[in-house]
Request: fold
Amino acid sequence: MSDLSYILNELGEDRDNYFNAVAPPIVQTSNFTFKSVADFRKGLSDEYNALLYSRGNNPTVDILRKKLAALDGAEDALVFGSGIASIAIPLIALLKSGDHVVSVAKPYSWTIKLFEKVLPKFGIHTTFVDGTVTANFEKAITPETKLIYLESPNTFTYELQDIAAVTALAKKKSIVTMIDNSYCSPLNQQPYTMGVDLVAQSATKFIGGHSDVVAGVVTGSKEMIKKIFDGEFLNIGGNISPMNAWLLIRGLRTIHLRMERVCNTTKKVVDFLANRPEVERVLFPFHPSFPQYELAKKQMKDAGGLFSAVLKAKSVNEIEAFCNSLKRFFMAVSWGGHESLVIPSVVSIKPEDFNLSDPNHRLIRFYVGLEDADYLISDLKQALGQLGR
Reply:
């Protein structure tokens, strides 16, 4: 990564062009004018390198693209209206009928739906494998395999893949690799520097950081990003608005401070829960009890604010009572903002289907925000008192 301070504060920002303003302007326009027919013709012929229509390029968005690409150590970036768009549109751009994908098991829920429901409509099929064993990817490859899809760690149970090993395998067989890096953010993991071709992530999370914008980003080589841009990106129109791009630039100003705070607080909260008698186990890549702890330390600079805990609950009612009594953790989806959050797995399980013997049914996912560690721990302590009542 280039100098972080330069990327976050200066890269892409030519302040002479906008009155020396510290914050860049929101160029809230749909289209751009040309001074001659020749210039207009050139813009129409190569929209990737022109300002023609904000469905493609926009000056505010362009500043953000430069910063996001540099953070990943990549050559270029595209920004989308949501995280799943940053996955779906590149896949649709790169794959065709008859192609085969090998995907890690248990990716993001909407990614699963993309592979199982949407892409098969176009004759594209996916095999899911246990990605903790690199050999499983090789076993699943067929002559039709065109892409290997990773998500390391995933965002509920945090299984990792050996990114360097999988990308080496893929390059040997001329297969494109793509990864969802939403858990880590570019500050804690840079898959592009490990050989991954396309790195996607939900910019809604740590990049935005304030729970007020939905967006996604994909980074890669200029050649691959241009291929996606010229085709499906422009045709589907899943771009981000200038206003939301400006909010993400604002979020980037403090991402290093927020990530440091989140990572440090999370370790304290995890250590507290790992030593509580009401907790069966914690799942967190940077905790020594995690099965892939050594791999996590090898390819991640740190872990973010997401972790899970399995409660020693005796009923679904105890789990619900624990969650309902939390005062500092809000029950909500997503993560990466200033607020701490919680999702119990039972929220997606009918009460009559609850299985006490299944640890996954007693699993709670936590996100630690910017609050003080003691503030959050005191809340957890009182909520754990609901168990066994």
About this structure: Residues 322 and 365 are 13 Å apart (CA to CA).
